[in-house]
Amino acid sequence: MFDGSPSRREFLKAAVATGGAAALSACLDRTPDDSVPAGTDDFDALPASQHAWNDACQTDEYGNVEMPRHQVLLYLELDRDGPPTESDRSTAENAFRVLDRAYERSHEGLLWSIGYSPRYFDRFDDPLPEDIDLPEPRALSPFETPAFDRQDALVHLASDRADVVLEAEQALFGEVDTANGITVDADLSGVFSVDARRTGFVGAGLPAERQSELNGIPDGNPVPEHSPLFMGFKAGFAKNQATEEYVTIRDGPFAGGTTKHVANVRQRLGDWYDEEDQYHRIMKLFSPGHAEQGLVEGIGENLGDDSGIDAMLDRIRDDAEQFGHVGHAQKAARANRDEDGNVKLLRRHFESADDGIASLHFPSLQRGISDFEAVREAMNGTDLTDIPTIRQRVNNGILEYLFTKHRGNFLVPARRIRALPTTNGEVPIIDD
Ligand code: HEM
């Protein structure tokens, strides 16, 4: 029974991390009170873009979007060589429709998407249209050696309900007969296999609850109780995020889609909590100006809907000379505006305790992957290392604490062509 007690919540989180049928069946004792809102048969009423999640998420009092609290990433390999067949496509689309029918498309039901990698599109004779900016993943700093996620596809499941994420995953692979009362009449087994399964969580309270015994978080439970992230601050202020519309591909056969970079970043927060004080944490994460002017209280809720970083960009070299530090947001934001001042990336990161290690899953949406690469290069701050105090990973934002383990690039097509699209943006089985 879903009684909302702390032990029950603990259990559900552990269940998402573990996965599997046993974990799910233990979750599924639903009472009428915790019923999950149903989905729809009226597929055309769903948003055209798979990545249009914001309107279906909760917002805080300032209008900042809060990502669903429980999330799973499934990295999938196609079972066959060469391009997918029409039968693969119709099976996949029917499996996806089970999710649409079963769960309301919201943080209380399920938000999800599927994206496809450059390697997937290499299965076709024709290349992707030239203006689709989807390179293979590569190392984005001189000091990282990530593994590259080149699996064919990435399914991303998200919900405030741990049991929904788990059940949706099992429905996708035919491990349950029904999903929220809807018959699972098609599933992805036989089309795709799961190569990697990664899980996580985000939101006030969850990192603090998970911190003890986690590799990367020092003893003493230092993560503030209400912080949505392990590093102890809020992120993703509305004015520092691209809009969904901005990151949406405008023209061509993939109009309505977006590109998605997903990094997995290990965090080693021993020194972050044991050697630094709050003043220096604010300096490193936001900027020296934020620390000096006392702009950030607690976990940063007082910032409202804007981190205020734009005022700190031109002074970055002076800050480095005067304070011996540059801020993470300050460095990254330099490359995160277009000529009209619009923000380019829509960051949707969440934390992970997979394998007992504190890490960050970092999905970022943008119109083209080069936008992400440019921002990540700006975050490296290599251009500032001529200033003696700024070293490649020391006094240089938060780089000292982050270790990139995986990178992958995906194209998240519009919903209409989500089932194994061709490089021409066609899904023959549906277009017929
Ligand atoms: C544990 C890791 C990380 C934490 C805790 C973190 C946290 C933050 C915080 C608190 C801010 C300022 C508030 C905001 O605008 O959201 C920020 C800004 C930013 N972060 Fe991170 N971040 C992390 C990793 C990354 C990574 C790996 C990237 C990759 C490029 C990144 C990209 C950015 C960008 C682009 C901004 C500036 C937003 C703007 O343009 O105003 N962050 N981050």
Automatic annotation (TrEMBL):
Record-linked SUPFAM superfamilies: Dimeric alpha+beta barrel
Listed InterPro entries: Dimeric_a/b-barrel, DUF7405, TAT_signal, TAT_signal_bac_arc
Protein name, as recorded: Twin-arginine translocation signal domain-containing protein
Organism, scientific name: Haloferax marinisediminis
